[in-house]
C-alpha cells in the first residue's frame, strides 16, 4: 500500500512540474512576443498595404480595466495563440472599416475576462496608429459556431475566448465581445 501511495505522490509531482513548466513557457513566449510587437509598433508604418507574416507579433491589445497589454500575433493556430492574442488572417485590421477578429486562451492572455463589462475600452496599437474600441455587447455561442466571423459592413473588433471561463478541459462554448470604434488617434 505504501508503494501505491508513493507512486500517486510521484505522479502528482510530475503533473505539477509539467504544469509549471507549461505555464512558464507560455509566459516567456508571451513576453517575447510583446517585446517584438512593441519593436514593430516603433517602426511606424503606413496603413496602406500593411501586413504581418504568420506567427509575427505586430501590434498590442491594451485592456485598461484589467491593466494588461498583450501582444497580437498573426494567426489563430496553436503556436500563435501560445505566443499571445491571435489575429484571424482573413479578417481586417484596424482602420480598414470591417470586422477584426482576435482570439486567445481564457486561461492565459484572456485570464479575468469575466470582469469586463459593456462600455469598457479595448485599445489596439498598430505601427500606423492607435485605435480605441468600446465594448457594445457580448454573446455566448457553441464552440463550433463560425457565424461570428463574417462581413459586417463596418469596423467592429470581435474578441473571442473559450467559455465558461473556469471550465476544466475543452470548453463547450465561446464568449464573444463586439466592440466599436470610439476614436481614431492615428
UniProtKB/TrEMBL annotation:
GO molecular function, one term: hydrolase activity
Keyword Hydrolase annotated: yes
Keywords: Hydrolase
Top-level taxon of the source organism: Bacteria
UniProt xrefs under Pfam families: Sortase
SUPFAM superfamilies found in the cross-reference section: Sortase
Protein name from the UniProt record: Class D sortase
Source organism: Shouchella clausii (strain KSM-K16) (Alkalihalobacillus clausii)
Taxonomic placement: Bacteria, Bacillati, Bacillota, Bacilli, Bacillales
Amino acid at each position: 500500500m505504501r508503494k501505491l501511495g508513493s507512486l500517486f505522490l510521484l505522479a502528482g509531482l510530475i503533473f505539477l512540474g509539467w504544469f509549471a513548466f507549461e505555464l512558464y513557457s507560455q509566459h516567456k513566449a508571451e513576453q517575447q512576443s510583446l517585446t517584438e510587437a512593441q519593436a514593430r509598433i516603433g517602426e511606424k508604418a503606413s496603413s496602406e498595404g500593411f501586413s504581418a507574416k504568420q506567427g509575427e507579433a505586430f501590434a498590442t491589445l491594451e485592456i485598461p480595466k484589467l491593466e494588461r497589454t498583450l501582444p497580437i500575433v498573426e494567426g489563430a493556430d496553436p503556436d500563435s495563440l501560445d505566443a499571445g492574442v491571435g489575429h484571424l488572417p482573413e479578417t481586417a485590421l484596424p482602420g480598414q472599416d470591417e470586422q477584426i477578429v482576435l482570439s486567445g486562451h481564457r486561461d492565459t492572455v484572456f485570464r479575468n475576462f469575466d470582469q469586463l463589462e459593456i462600455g469598457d475600452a479595448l485599445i489596439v496599437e498598430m505601427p500606423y496608429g492607435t485605435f480605441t474600441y468600446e465594448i457594445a455587447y457580448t454573446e455566448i455561442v457553441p464552440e463550433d459556431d463560425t457565424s461570428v466571423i463574417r462581413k459586417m459592413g463596418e469596423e467592429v473588433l470581435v474578441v473571442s475566448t473559450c467559455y465558461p471561463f473556469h471550465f476544466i478541459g475543452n470548453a463547450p462554448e465561446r464568449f464573444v465581445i463586439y466592440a466599436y470604434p470610439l476614436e481614431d488617434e492615428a
